[in-house]
Amino acid sequence: MSQTSPIDLMVLHAVRTMGYADTARIAARLSMTEDEAREYLLDSQAQGWITFSSFAGDGGWSLTESGKAHGERLLAAELDEAGARAAVEKVHRDFLPLNDVMAAACTAWQLAEMGIDDQTVTLAQTITALEGPAAALAGLEGRLTARLDRFSGYQQRFTEALTKAHAEPAWITGTDRDSCHRVWFELHEDLIATLGVTR
User: Fold this and answer.
1) On the CB side of 140, how many CA atoms lie within 13 Å of its CA?
2) Could you count the other beta carbons within 10 Å of the beta carbon of residue 132?
3) Which helix (H) or strand (E) holds 54?
4) According to the model, what pLDDT value does residue 1 have?
5) Residue 151: DSSP 8-state
6) What is the predicted pLDDT for the residue at 118?
7) Residue 15 above 90 pLDDT?
8) What is the pLDDT of residues 110-120, one digit of tens each?
9) Entry pTM
10) pLDDT at residue number 46
11) How many other β-carbons are positioned within 10 Å of the β-carbon of residue 78?
12) In sequence order, what are the residues at sequence separation of 6 or more whose Cβ sits closer than 8 angstroms to the Cβ of residue 147?
């Protein structure tokens, strides 16, 4: 049976995986109201686990070192309580070769966009390269959500971004949206945080 994470852990973990995000984006990610999310965020801030910063009118939440350590302790306890450590470790091992494919495709696309690389890759070639990781992601997510509910949604978000990229290439690596690269990065961070390992 899949285990459901407590909401306070989910909010703290969202700040970790998203890296830097405002209250509205965190609330949307967790299907909460902004008021609900803000309450949990302020509680975490009072504990010293997250901090709010702003620059040029843009503000967002990020994790502190103590918040990172606290989150990893909670995730480790949850992982062991669910008896899911071996399963998540296996998914992480299977994820890494796909991560190499994803990184190579995104890097080639970014270089082509900037006109730096002599070997120009097309949008169609990039989308084709990302279809393999997209297909594999469904299986990986299924194995993860069989143990922990909080891993749900990555495959849908990635597929939606890849579909949108046909008409708007920014959906491949854009940092201002839920792009393929951003979704994949968040899943990688999720696995790392859950297992307490480094990239």
Assistant:
1) 29
2) 13
3) strand 50-55
4) 63
5) G
6) 67
7) yes
8) 998 887 766 68
9) 0.92
10) 97
11) 19
12) 2, 3, 82, 83, 84, 87, 88
Q: 85 in helix, strand or coil?
A: helix
Give the distance from CA 4 to its chain's centroid: 18
- Alpha-carbon distance 10 to 152, whole Å? 12
Pairing of strands 58-63, 50-55: antiparallel
The CA distance from 180 to 164, in Å, is 10
CA distance 143 to 57: 41
Looking at residue 42, its pLDDT comes to 97
**Alpha-carbon span 89 to 140, nearest angstrom:** 11
Which secondary structure element, helix H or strand E, spans residue 60, and what is its range? strand 58-63
Number of neighbouring beta carbons within 10 Å of residue 191? 22
- Measured CA to CA in angstroms, residue 44 lies from 25, 72, 138 at distances of 17, 14, 32
Compute the CA torsion angle 158, 163, 169, 174 (nearest 10 deg): -20
